[in-house]
Amino acid sequence: MSDFRSGSDVELFEPYDPQAIEPKWQQYWRDQGTYEVDNDDPRPRYYVLCMYPYPSGAAHMGHVRNYTFGDLLTRYRTMSGDAVLSPMGFDSFGLPAENAAIKTGRHPRAFTDERIEQLRSSITRIGGVYDWRREVKSHDPSYMRWTQWIFLQFFENGLAYRKAAPVNWDPIDQTVLANEQVLADGTAERSGAVVEKRDLEQWYFRITDYAQQLLDDLDQVDWPERVVTQQRNWIGRSEGAEFRMGVVTAEGQPVLSAEGSTPLEFSVFTTRPDTAFGMTFCVLAPEHPLVSQIVSEPLRDKVEAFVTLARSTSEIDRLSTDRPLADRGCFTGAFATNPFTGDAVPIYLADYVLATYGTGAVMAVPGEDQRDWDFAGIFDLPIVHTVQRPEGWQGEAFSGDGPHINSPSSELLPPAGDLDLNGLNTVDAKNAAMDWLEASGCGERKVNFRLRDWLLSRQRFWGCPIPIVYCDACGIVPVPLDQLPVLAPDDVEFTPTGQSPLLSHEGFLHTTCPQCGAPARRETDTMDTFVDSSWYYLRFTDPWSEDVPFRQDQLAQWMPVDQYIGGAEHAVLHLMYARFFTKALSDLQVLPADLREPFQRLFTQGMIRLDGAKMSKSKGNLVAPEEIIDTLGADALRLSHLAVKPPEEDVDWEDVGLEGCHRFLMRLWRLAVPGSDLTADLRTGEAQSVDAAIERATHVLIDGISADFDRWSYNVAVAKFMAFLNELYRYVQAPEQAHGPTLQASVDTLLKLLAPACPHMTAELWAARHVEQGDQVLPDAEPAHVHTTAWPVANPELLLQESVTLVVQINGKVRDRIEVAPDADEAACLAAALESDKVRQQLQGAEPHRVIARPPKLVNLLV
RNA sequence: GCCCGGGUGGCGGAAUGGCAGACGCGGCGGAUUCAAAAUCCGCUGUCCUUACGGGCGUGUGGGUUCAAGUCCCACCCCGGGCACCA
Fold first, then answer.
1. Residue A559: which residues within 8 A CB-CB, separation 6 or more?
2. Which residues contact A604 (CB under 8 A, 6 or more apart)?
3. Cβ contact A170 with chain B strand, < 7 A
4. Pick from A691, A241, A630, A230: nearest CA to A442
5. Same structural domain for residues A321 and A402?
6. Domain assignment of residue A82, yes or no
7. Parallel, antiparallel, or unpaired for β A175-177 and A281-284?
8. Which window residues (805-834, chain A) lie with Cβ within 7 Å of strand B?
9. What is the CA angle A373-A396-A354, rounded to 5?
10. ipTM of this predicted structure
11. Is pLDDT of A534 > 70?
């Protein structure tokens, strides 16, 4: 603790001791229930939510940053008169606890509960205030019950289903993953393992039913453009046409199905139906179900070898573009009829055609698609141009717009006799081609999405069990609602193999069928933890309900979340899933019909970089928040996070200016604490013009801070606090002395404005100034606790300065600055400008031929 | 390749089209001290000038405007996301 009194002086005032005051106020807010809010609160409602954390033990700097923003908003809105719902909970299922159990043999629940305890205490030490009565935990049976209930609602309504498909398998975490959890390079987002493809039967949520709504409703939320764009990309809507092509032999004879009755055909999806006259071959995915039926006998061995190879190639290799194209495709010996031309075109297989997108088959138009062009070059296939190249075109395939040609070509007498795209541009040709497809019955307009259904099963123990029973007689049977929650047993052993102990737990595995009573088998998979986090924000509105997951009237009161705060890394994971849950539950009439989006405003804060090149080893251990709280205190830590950068930007830890913030707090303490040397000798009596200037500056500050808080310009707000305190220091140290009432009112206002950012120190100083000196009760009878005072409102009359600086420019260059009255008009400003010595010197007697005046701030003279 | 951000002092950054560099860090100087730390006060874009002053300056090149860090066009660089999606 530094000491700003000279050694021999007696102690005048209490030193700033964050270690003493911070725990005291944290206890006070908890005891008083200052930030508990009831559902019948008459004040206007505001729901602020930080993404609930995975309990990883003590808080790290990312938590500090996140919760500082959220907590500031909670306290600011509360002082502004709102009933603020600010809940906190824990996303407490997940692999770290299970991996720890595999290592130590300890049950994941014990591990998790311990970590929750640590994190809760850590969050409290940061100064975060929450309505802890509403705390929810994913692994709490009273929460799991409703997670399972929602699953069953989805199951009953066809939104949860089981299917066999090639899925992403993570060999390290030993579980399947959703597409969203696999990175573009084919590695797992969590474990970093190279993901394998396996054919498994798994549970899915039908999120694709909502693809269009998930896309459309992005217009209704107030979210960062970046996140909206990422969601749009992920949903990946594309418009085009789907049409059927009949399979024929090399001789042009239709190929019949195995039963011999129906001719084989398949569908292709294309976004460029206008170029269909240029199709010279088509390509199926190796996994396409028709492959084995259409392959010509001489090529069967070769094709089967190719399919086997493609299926066993890892995703990472299959997506790699540097493998030679010749190895990636294979001719089937079969042909298909292009309905536009009547021509038979060869059918190829290629591993880059994805079985899971569109129809798993594409038409290939090398003239207008570069990948098809490359493929045609390798396999020596013809190329037809269907769009006129622009003058001087040097490239290969041309995907731009232009008049269509060869559509049909002049020598061809097409089956599409009445279809002529020649001369049309792309848009018109597309429409004409699609009209023709629909009229002729060959195909139709079609919209495809990149978004796939959400694979939710996980082969893990520490997650919410899927409440399903398999019965030989009845099939897939949901566990009856009155038997929820299905809980995993406690007497489990975690083996080093990593396999879920549920698979080998006889007591859990064997049950009876709820429908027929026969012996049956339980589902051993648990749910993706993103299921838990897809609805927790709903439960916060009414976490006490025993008979329902939440109540419609409470939801209507609080939802949607007014301000959601979290990391941008959840742009397409959690945020997409939660939006889907809200829409689906609303359609199932579990949520209010008009609740279609869960999070009205989203703020994504930047990340803290600790390990960048800039971070030296010796500083590496400076980043534990608790160590900083132990020394400088939580208020300095919070303030430094606010000050360092705009909140949405990433932060290098070394840029966080703790010293400056700590110095500021020490200076404030010294000025505001009762008995300060700085305020020992204050002037009384009438206020003078210097005092009026301080009063005006105070109101300018009120105005500025309120605006900065509203627009999340926290770094600018901190700068204003510091500048204002500097001004007060100059004021109290000036020879003519500061005016007592003016100074104290300004300091009080400063304490209020700073209270959301630095809650402990402001509470302590406020109490010291207004409570502990019992004989000095505030004139306007303010509450004794700064956080329950009303947010100050600036007096508009005091926002006008006594004089303003008039900038005088000559030919756009600043030549002088003159103080003028704030209400000076154009004539007065011009007169003042022309009187200036500097201006006269510059003008040298010349007359300005034009004057631009923006009274009272600027005059520009043109000569 | 496509889509988002972003390039301002030694550093982090500020600036409804109207004084570029607020505020902080760092640096320099002064006060205080036996001394140091802490504290308090001041200076701190750059070049020319003893000074008074003045020139130049927000990634590059153009443009609009009385006036551009801010708006428009073209380009360069950095960060992030997406990417064989037919």
1. A47, A537, A538, A541, A591, A592, A595, A598
2. A224, A226, A227, A565, A566, A567, A568, A571, A648
3. no
4. A241
5. yes
6. yes
7. unpaired
8. 805, 807, 809, 811-815, 817
9. 30
10. 0.94
11. yes
Q: Which of A755, A784, A799 is the last residue of a domain?
A: A799
- In this structure, is residue A147 part of a structural domain? no
Q: Is A510's pLDDT higher than 90? A: yes
Considering the domain architecture, whether residues A57 and A125 belong to the same structural domain is answered as yes
What is the rounded CA–CA span in Å between residue A517 and residue A519? 7
For strand B, list residues 607-666 of chain A whose Cβ lies within 7 Å of it: 643-646, 649-650, 655, 657, 659-661, 663-664, 666
Domain boundary among A449, A469, A496: A449
Residue A9 has pLDDT above 60, yes or no: no
Residue A204 CA distance to nucleotide B60 C1' (Å) = 53
The answer to whether strand B lies under 7 Å from the CB of residue A716 is yes
Shared domain check, A572 and A442: no
Q: How far apart (Å, rounded) are the C-alpha atoms in residues A204 and A161?
A: 5
Identify the domain containing residue A850 by its residue range.
804-862
The helix (run of H) or strand (run of E) holding residue A587 is: helix A574-587
> The domain that contains A812 carries what CATH number?
3.10.20.590
Work out the pLDDT band at A831, boundaries 50, 70, 90.
confident
**pLDDT averaged over every residue in chain A:** 88
Residue whose C-alpha is closest to residue A120's, from A74, A88, A92: A88
CATH number of the domain within which A56 lies: 3.40.50.620
